[in-house]
Amino acid sequence: MLQALIFGTTGYTGIELIRILSAHPEVSVVAGSSRTWANKKASEVFSYISAEKDFPLVELERLLDKPEADVAFLALPHGDSAIAARRLLESGVKVIDLSADFRLKDLGTYESWYGLHKDPDLLNSGVYGLAEIHRDEIRTAELVANPGCYPTTVILGIAPVVNIDGVDTSFPIVDSKSGISGAGRGAKLNTSFSEAGEGFRPYGVIGHRHIPEMEQELSLLAGRKITVRFTPHLIPVSRGMVSTIYLRTVPDLDAETLRDAFEKFYENEQFVRVLPKGIFPDTARIRGSNQVHISVEIDQRTHYAVIMTAIDNLVKGASGAAVQNMNIMFDFEESAALMGLPLFP
Question: Model pTM?
Fold first, then answer.
């Protein structure tokens, strides 16, 4: 059995990793880090964990001192991951980082959006972990930078048409909505139920941190600079995310041609569903799954393509993508532990 560590076990992405990996036939979680629950068993924190799947929770430093495992998932804050990654890699442990510490390749760009990088020499060692785009690189990687949730929806929503005739992808306009769990499990007034449960609001309107990640990956795909206008919103649901992307088109481009481009691009991708005409993504239909639902339309009146992409922000937007990357890195079936159908209703 492959032995796995989870750093940041009791946050939402750590909890989701436990859920997914509990169904993996080739992987055992052997330990996790927790500041609050150190020196307890995982089952003492989460009563649904069975005896055969139980594992100890220990302090982060102690786990880094003796990381006896094959792979580590870092569900840690930005900055903390960079320090942990170096020590784990030096111990021979492969690393999948769910923070932003290794997503951006340019140090200046990283530091202008996130502050001082704590291990700049390691910055370019990470492979960007969007499997549908970078599968071959992930296969041989020691360090994988798991994508952000918003960038996952935007990159997968634009990638099939970055260089298609008749579509202008140089300046995508993106309007996104996310469930409250995207803000993390820590107590914050503006994401508490009483504050957010009856509300619906934009945030990060100018300069959201995920913008450079979107622009980096889309520009690499296109071979030219792409600038993204991005506005996220918080919606009063626990999980789920939809991005609506607007791209200018030439007057004679039809929706079927565009939809065909998406179907061809994703024809061998088991987690991506290009929906039939007139069927639009719904977070309730992908909840708890690693699926990506994409719908494509063209407004002939304004000559805009409208591309809609939905994911579960905790699964394909975080922990599910991390397990998908692990499966690729260790030559498991890519869908192992990830084929569960959505939870509905």
Answer: 0.95
Q: What is the domain count for the chain?
A: 2
8 Å CB contact between 9 and 18: yes
- Does residue 230 form part of some domain? yes
Angle, nearest 10°, between helix axes 211-222 and 149-158?
Answer: 30
* Same domain? 184 vs 38: no
Q: State whether 212 and 295 are in the same domain.
A: yes
Q: Average of pLDDT values for 161-166?
A: 94
Burial class from Cβ neighbours inside 10 Å (0-12, 13-18, 19+) for residue 41 reads middle
The answer to whether residue 156 is domain-embedded is yes
DSSP class per residue in 203-233: -S-S--TTHHHHHHHHHHHHTS----EEEEE
Residue 29's nearest CA partner among 84, 71, 90 is 71
Task: State how far the alpha carbon of 213 is from the alpha carbons of 134, 178, 186, 312, 323, in Å.
Answer: 14, 17, 24, 19, 21
Q: Quick one: pLDDT band at residue 345, thresholds 50, 70, 90?
A: confident
Boundaries of domain holding 156: 150-313
Mean pLDDT on 189-197: 68
Q: Distance between the two ends of the chain, CA-based, in angstroms?
A: 34
Catalytically active residues are 149
* DSSP conformation class of 307: E
The model's pLDDT over 226-278, given as tens digits with 9 standing for 90+, comes to 999 999 999 989 899 999 999 999 999 999 999 999 999 999 999 999 999 99
Average per-residue pLDDT for the chain: 94
My answer on whether 65 and 188 are in the same domain is: no
